[in-house]
Please model this.
Amino acid sequence: MLTYTIRRLVLSVPTLLFISLSIFLLLELAPGDPMAQVPLTIPPEVKEKMREALGLGEPIPVRYYKWLVQFFWVEPQVLIDHMFDTRLAWHYEAVPADMSAALLNTLTEEGSIRETSAGLEMLVKDQRVLSWQTRSPVMDIVVQRIPQTIWVVGTAYIVGILIALPIGIYSAYRQYSIFDQSGTFITMIGFSVPPFFTGPLLIVIFAVHLGWLPSVYDTIHVVTDWESFKFQFRQMILPVMVLALQTTAQISRYMRASMLDNLNQDYVRTARAKGLSEAVVVMVHVLRNSMIPVVTVIALGMPAIFGGAIITEVIFKVNGIGQLLITALFANDLPMVLTLTFIFAIMIVLFNLIADVLYGVLDPRIRYD
Amino acid sequence: MTELSNPVPQGKSTSQMQDVWGQFRKHKGAMLGGGFLAFITLAVLFGPYIWTLDPQKIDYRARDLRPIYMAIFDSDVKVAWAHPFGTDQLGRDGISNMLAGGRASMAVGWAAMLLTMLIGTSIGVIAGFFKRLDGPLMRLTDLFLSLPILPLLLVAVTLFRQPLSSNFGPEGGMFILIVGIIGITSWMPTARIVRGDVLALKEREFVLAARSIGTKNRNLITRHILPNVLSPIMVSATLGLATAIITESALSFLGVGFPSDFPTWGKMLADAVDRMENFPERVIMPGLAISLTVLAVNYMGDGLRDALDPRIRGR
Model:
């Protein structure tokens, strides 16, 4: 199992490299010009300077390599620095000649300037992936935005699973009953109604007509006491409902099918024959075996729901990473788009791996070696 | 010596397609879904010839009309029999917009589905049939499966919109772009299913027989393999149609779809969201149209899967 996991991890490196290259080339070959928005009065030589400042002057392979280094080498170091208060992402460079004496003094007192045989050297931070919109590091913005997405999407996923599993189990146990029929119908609806319809519909019903819930997600809200928790809870209901409907529909279908496969097996008859109670037969014997494929489906669904959350984030104005991607796209902020899309790709590859490994761990019949 | 009974079955013999149709008819949801899909398709195809109001015609005097049924609840509401579905803020007619929007959505859905099936089937058949190409093509499929589809769709549509619309016109360019991109990013499940089936079929006796009389590969595929993988292709085609309609609407909703004066259901929904407190029907009508169409297609897919599965058929 361990060797399989390691092999898969190693194999995922070329996959990710290929994906990053294809996203990079897609952005590169696209005809959009980041300088298209600047006023026409700016002379061409200034425009050329601006392009160079954005890092557009170099040939494509060099820029791809630089992005790779920044993403895979500098950014993790920055993260480690941030967590353990180290200075991995820093290096020494010669002090610029035009630096003022006052600044030089303060920097020397801080200890960020050292003397070498060649002269004075200053501690400089490595170049990170910079957003063209804000000129600040992309990963900082992403780190700010991710908690919003994880809060909303993660809660929705858990709620969806918690609703889906009992529905799936009971529908399978009472196959063709009224509960099963209506459950199947409702999951079919959840399957077919897109989030950009359920979202506005729920807003119209619950926020506009009934006035029970807020329609806009307030992301700067901080939970401090019971009142603010209640507010947070209420503003999360609508987006979570929209996302959970989709999750519920998918997972309860899988759960039902998997339970049905197992309920007719011989071991179930054996369990009943030796006098086990119905609850033990269904909830222990059948459920444990039926959960194997469902767990992998749950793992596989994680990245998809992050991608699908883009629409929900736009509807409820949650400023998570999906909304960040949309705004970056419209602003032609290519480094941001590249990094975000690549983060989505990493999640897909990672959760695919997790799903496969889980399958092997849970099901003793599966042997990868 | 007793006479042997005649082994020839007495009942009316039925072809495979008749069996499939018989099973399909038993699935109520599938029949309803198929009927609704046929209705919607016919309505968007021929509706504009019956309801001849121009969807683009701006009539300020008749703007913001409510649908006719609103008059039942509230007699003060602004309604007009000339516009039974109401009008939008520019006075464009609701019915003709729904029909025109449906035309665009269905056209994108069908075209993208056909393209998806074409790519998926050819890659699946080639990978299953030619052993040497199997490895590389399946690695390619895996790679595509790990691409983040919706973000990539958004990126591609935003970035390539300009040149395509300058070459093929704003609507034509967008149509080609959306159909092409949906096709390129959603063929993988079909390819996998088809490959699996082809791998199994390839070892069957009838393929060996066909090969032994000197059938060329091309004929072998078109005459013997393809007809036998038709059923999984049809099932994934229904799924593909549903996904394509939803994807197009999602793109339009996010504002990267067709140009503003070209209605599609997703676009109408997105435009109406801003004023949905006052005019909820403008969100509900296109939303309901998308949802019902997709629901119908999904139910049809369910029924088709049951009907084409010989283990379930005849039970």
